Amino acid sequence: MVYLKNFYFASGIAEDLYLNDIQRTCYDSFYPFMILPQKGIDEIEFKDVTILYGGNGSGKSTMLNIIAEKIGAERMAPYNRSNFYEDYLGYCDLDYINAQMEEKLIITSDDIFDYMLDIRRLNEGIDTKREERLEEYLDYKYSSYQLKSIDDIEELRKRNAAKSKTQSKYIRETLLDNVREYSNGESAFKYFTSKIKENGIYLLDEPENSLSPEMQLELVNFLEQSVRAFRCQFIIATHSPFILSLKNALVYDLDKEPAGPNDWHKLKNVQAYYRFFMDRREEFEN
């Protein structure tokens, strides 16, 4: 589903602003005005899946953040701004085909890392409370308890529950035993599946971080299903060959001069993988 059709960057006006008395001696950067003109790209046309590809420093994350801010996408983690960011956004423009999306969200690597840290803190808390739960279980299991009033019913229920369970089962159930079942990659994948819902625009900044190749392929499958079944639109910044291979994705190559659409299998990063494996193909055949 295409909600956002076109986005127009404020390229080409940085020099005018500089000459029209915006220059201040205390500023040594006009970010993001001076980034995108170097790429020669003023406009992006979107499909169901649009990918911004490029090496480090190519501007793909900057472009993604600009689009996210202009459309008012919800975001969790902060990002780099500058004194001229709001001015820049004011000169950008966009076209919607269907503005009836239910959600606009940007998901960054920092969001994923923060989520995994939360899981780690929760697990640390579980370790701290494990001994407390063991003592609680032994008390419930083997001590006698008399019901004295209606207020004691809940306490009696807990004690009866403990008597009907093994020690390990009681501790697992009271400590959210499912938390520890996921690796970092599985937790990252779970974050995407929990955040991406129906009828939304989702901007993903390098979603391959923390994901193994197998998990990246699972994410690709999930994103393709979300486009087909849940009417989602995705704008993705990545250099992962797995993410780049998303079906029918429109890929903008920011490493080209000027930047513009390119076939995913012709991209510099993907060609490097291809040459690497082709040079070693005999090892795979043995």
Automatic annotation (TrEMBL):
Instruction: Cite the SMART domains for this sequence.
Output: AAA (SM00382)
Location of the AAA+ ATPase domain: 46-277
Question: One Pfam family of this protein, by short name?
Answer: AAA_15
What residue range is the signal peptide? none
Which InterPro entries does this entry report, sorted A to Z?
AAA+_ATPase (IPR003593), AAA_GajA/Old/RecF-like (IPR041685), Bact_Antivir_Def_Nuclease (IPR051396), P-loop_NTPase (IPR027417)
Which PANTHER family does the entry link to? AAA+ ATPASE DOMAIN-CONTAINING PROTEIN, ATP/GTP PHOSPHATASE
Q: What is this protein called?
A: Predicted ATPase
